[in-house]
Amino acid sequence: MELYIHEKPAGASGGGRIPLTIYENEFVSVIGDACEITSDSGKIAVYDTGNLIFRESVEKNVSHGEPDAFLSGDRKIMHKRHVAGVMEQTRLEGIGVKRLRELAPFEIFKTELAYLMMSSPEAVVFNNPFKKLDADDRTRIVYEMAKLQKKLGVSFVYCTTDDREAMRISTRVIVINHGKIEQIGSPEELYYAPVSRDVAEIFDGHNIFEGWIREKTGSDALIMTEFGQFVVQTNEFEEDEMLYISIRPEMIRVRESEGDHVKVSGVLTDYHFMGNGYEAVVKLINGQDVVGRMPGKSYEVGSVVYLDWDTEEIALMHTRGDSVYEMIETLSTEVGNSLKVSI
Fold first, then answer.
1. What is the pLDDT of residues 175-208, one digit of tens each?
2. What CATH number is associated with residue 131?
3. Residue 25: how many CB atoms within 10 A of its CB?
4. What is the pLDDT of residue 10?
């Protein structure tokens, strides 16, 4: 199925049209600023409570999805069976006679979804329709939406600005940034392996550092930062290339001695109990705060501690596309070339 993402950044009069392929029976969340999903296909339904008549009953509203005013005989019986079947699928049994104005927000959501399912769509699109609801109602609807998508076997495409929602309910997440797709992947892929600083910053908690590859031997790269150095394996980055390093807090261990590959130390400034351990805040020599984990109240605030992590659990990200770093790399290249000429 071909859909289109339209991103309209704040203050913009319009946005680009980005093509998107949707597969059968998947839940896709699109994270973007004021994005909207459209389609040229008649088999795509768009969630809109404006389809509903609030003075009428749930059953009557659902039946409007496939009007029965001109049906008679067997066709009318089949229509009523269709309505009953869709209401059962969308878990509306027992409230068919209620008027919509008597319903809770999550029941109104299910009524609109049932209305759309009467036309047997291949996919249902949600253009961030719950943004004005309070947190409790929104959370209940989003979880209900995830359960119903699995039960109905129809693809859902949900446009949202809430990364936590997207991570909890989706089989695939798409991040839109400045009119282009920044990354597509499973929630786990985006969470642990962001491809850019913009993606990493969407998901709260990433520790992001700046560094460069001092030397490379085969796939072993020695990464230098303002606060220390460590070795990682990568075939994607070149010697002397500048980069961003992203590490989740749960991957960083706070300890009393240096690790085998990581040579980073700092001062413990704070810690918080997390149930299965403590979240520690460590200030590095360059003044940057890093959040990691320690097993207990092992160290006093103000003491020197060391950070350790498994190098395969960090994400390396190109600085390409960052105008400041592009300018620095361009100047470095120009200076290097001029030195070669003068020599």
1. 988 778 899 999 999 998 899 988 998 887 789 9
2. 3.40.50.300
3. 13
4. 42
pTM: 0.79
Are both 164 and 210 inside the same structural domain? no
Q: Yes or no: say if 61 and 111 are a contact pair by the CB < 8 Å rule.
A: yes
CATH of the domain at 286: 2.40.50.140
Among the candidates 162, 197, 232, a domain finishes at 197
60 and 180 fall within a common domain: yes
Interatomic CA distance for residues 77 and 121, integer angstroms: 22
Domain of residue 303: give its range.
205-333
Q: Are residues 93 and 234 in the same domain?
A: no
Among residues 197, 220, 236, the one where a domain terminates is 197
Residue 171: pLDDT over 60: yes
